[in-house]
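COURSE: Structural Biology Practicum
ASSIGNMENT: Worksheet 4, Part C
STUDENT ID: 0417
INSTRUCTIONS: Below are two proteins. For each, the amino acid sequence is given first, followed by its structure token string. Answer the questions at the end about the second protein only.

PROTEIN I
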Amino acid sequence: MPYIIFFFLTYLVIGFQIGLFPAIEIVGGMINLIVIILISTFFLEIEKEGLIFSIVLAIAFDIYFYLPIGLSVVAVLIIYALLNIFRQKIIEKTNYFFIASIIFAAVVIFDLILFIGNSIASGHFVFERLFLSLLPDALINFIIAIPLFIIIQYLIKILAVYRIIDVKKSKIKVE
């Protein structure tokens, strides 16, 4: 039963990330659920499930947008490694603005890795495209980070009540 619900949620989120969000770009910026879910689950201390979920989303993202397979996965793993390196400093000062700022920085890193990898794969370096999409992507994700974090927090509580995921008591207090 938990696998069916995990599959359903994955399919739903892939639908939002690939089908809905590119259609409603705001000033050239697109909501990046891959990064938001990865960082939200990091702060809610269900990192393993969040990392697996983000990797599945990243593979679907690569396939749909014709990126070199694994490029988004590399970006997810680099962001996850950076979160773990700075874990102690991040956990000390956690509030909603700080989480949104971390998501802003992570989206910048994610977009830079995709740009560099895609440029190397195609042989064309188009810096205008990077600068036209980098700031709008980061700003849109900064703005939408708090509401989506609260929604993810609520969904995780629901999944924990029905014992679909195992949530340990979080030491991180988000205010």
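PROTEIN II
(use this one for the questions)
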Amino acid sequence: MPTVKTWPTTCRPLEELTAEGRVSDGAKLPAEQGPKPRKRPAPELVAPGFIAPATWIIPLVTASEANGREWRKRSKRTDLAWRAVSKALGPHLVSAALAAAPYHRGEPIRVFLTRLGGRLLDRSNLPMALKATEDALAFILGCDDGNPLWQAEWFQKCGGPCGVEVAIGPGTRG
């Protein structure tokens, strides 16, 4: 009959195991490792707003997508951007439709996207940070953001609460 080994029913103190050389002196029990690092506090957001005829202030945290490796985080930020744009433009769809009317008549429109708050992004990361916002805006307005009639410009104002300011105006033929 084979021999069955059983685990001891009592635990031995850490000092005893250290003295026997089974555990190094630097080892700590999970309870002794100290507090876990805290997550960053959620950033302060701007208050949502609408300034006639076609400017919206959208409370939204934007981040550079250039070096992002985690697709889940990017997907979540994109989803939040689409929801925030929809929520901001929803009560003012008539104004949004009037702002997009020149585009649908074949005239260019200029879309000014201003990233509010946060740290300064360089000029190549700024459009990527605002891409989800631009896509949602174009979708709601029934426009194609790849069409030359859609003239987007990106700006940023660092510091203060986070958000995106969207303004739509007449474009220039060129």
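ANSWER KEY EXCERPT:
Q1: The longest strand covers residues 109-116.
Q2: Strands lie at 49-51, 55-58, 109-116, 150-157, 163-170.
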